[in-house]
Write a structure and sequence with these properties.
alpha+beta, 434 Repressor (Amino-terminal Domain), Jelly Rolls, six-stranded antiparallel β-sheet
Length: about 200
């Protein structure tokens, strides 16, 4: 006889405390429940239940309340949003990129989708030809760089910006008498555990 198949139930989720956010925004706007009721078309009793988390509002009701309070509906879900995070300059991880370029993780490894690094190359230092997935953005902060990809070659100086498809082999070299310092932004999928950039 076959064993009965147990039904898998989704894990219990914590319900966001929408009421607290609705009340906070109402107080922020200096409005009474009656004023919100008049603007939203919802009755005072229902709004009070929402604010005390005794009623779960429909999307339509939340839209009406948001419009009455003149805030985006997302304002009621702030408790679900991770707080901002800071990556301190003094805590940056420093590694070596292609050709020995000094690479500092400006983003601290925080972003899920991007990688932001500060690259410093002494005069004459080059990355050599290399490639990796995705686009790569370069902003030259100081010094000068000579970049090339296929038949394209140009020199970049402070304030210049370059975007290229990094799946096509490319190379960069610091030129001039001072180190080249640039901000590099690329997809996180590139070297997920390493810092090879350029």
């Amino acid at each position: 006889m076959d064993e009965p198949v147990s039904e898998q139930r989704p894990a219990a989720r914590t319900r966001p405390a929408l009421g607290r956010q609705v009340r906070r925004w109402r107080h922020e706007r200096g409005m009474t429940l009656a004023a919100v009721a008049e603007r939203s078309g919802l009755n005072v009793g229902y709004l009070s239940q929402i604010e005390n988390d005794k009623a779960v509002p429909s999307i339509e009701a939340l839209v009406a309340v948001a419009e009455a309070l003149e805030v985006p509906i997302t304002s009621f879900f702030l408790e679900l949003v991770p707080p901002p995070r800071v990556a301190r300059a003094s805590e940056r991880r420093v590694t070596e990129g292609p050709g020995g370029v000094r690479v500092e993780r400006v983003d601290g490894g925080i972003p899920r989708d991007l990688r932001i690094v500060l690259a410093t190359a002494p005069p004459g230092l080059g990355t050599g030809l290399h490639a990796h997935p995705g686009d790569e953005h370069h902003l030259i902060l100081s010094g000068r760089m000579r970049v090339r990809q296929a038949d394209f070659e140009t020199d970049l100086g402070p304030g210049d910006y370059l975007l290229w498809d990094a799946t096509v082999p490319h190379a960069a070299e610091a030129i001039g008498d001072e180190p080249a310092v640039l901000l590099l932004i690329s997809h996180r999928a590139h070297g997920a555990d390493g810092d090879g950039e350029g």
